[in-house]
Design goal:
Oligomer: homodimer
Helix content of chain A: 25-40%
Structural class of chain A: alpha+beta
Radius of gyration of chain A: 15 Å
Strand content of chain A: 25-35%
Number of helices of chain A: 4
Low-confidence stretches of chain A: none
Number of strands of chain A: 5
Chain lengths: 110, 110
Amino acid sequence: MGEVKHLCLVKFKEGVVVDDVVDDMTELVSEMDMVKSFEWGQDVLNQEMLTQGFTHVFSLAFASADDLTSYMSHERHAAFAGTFMAALEKVLVIDFPVVIAKPPPPLPPA
Amino acid sequence: MGEVKHLCLVKFKEGVVVDDVVDDMTELVSEMDMVKSFEWGQDVLNQEMLTQGFTHVFSLAFASADDLTSYMSHERHAAFAGTFMAALEKVLVIDFPVVIAKPPPPLPPA
């Protein structure tokens, strides 16, 4: 069993300071060892028909489904999730085992 | 400017053989050098309230926005996209420059 991703697409409520939310999430995730990696981004398409109104993507990677469960059930995640959800107009969550169909090229030697 | 991701969430129409679609996409992407990497997965939450009905995630990474544009405008992508879209009940697309907030741990030396 390989990597599992917890993918979260959101649209923030008007007036939410997204940078602050991202800072809080980055701090939380950096202190939670079971989170293998965390990346995020803001949509640049701006095409409502394609994005369905979602504007930001947050993607957390875990080494296993157990690590994801351990993160989701952690009290620090629960505390953050309450504040996070309150800042959202809409949210979509998908958890999936990652199938790497084309691996990235190897990094050049340091 | 770093990596850009093209994220596609879908729900397939009933009767679609998902493995065949994935095989076709994998073949296409493996032959398109501007696609840096490609991963996909199937949702395991099965919670309509959270997934909004989307069941599969396809994530393509590009080294730059130019590479993404070059892929999207390529005739081979256009040909595939037509068949792909016809297999979908719903689709959501987000393109975003990737912000790596917590990098994955380095791989152990080979």
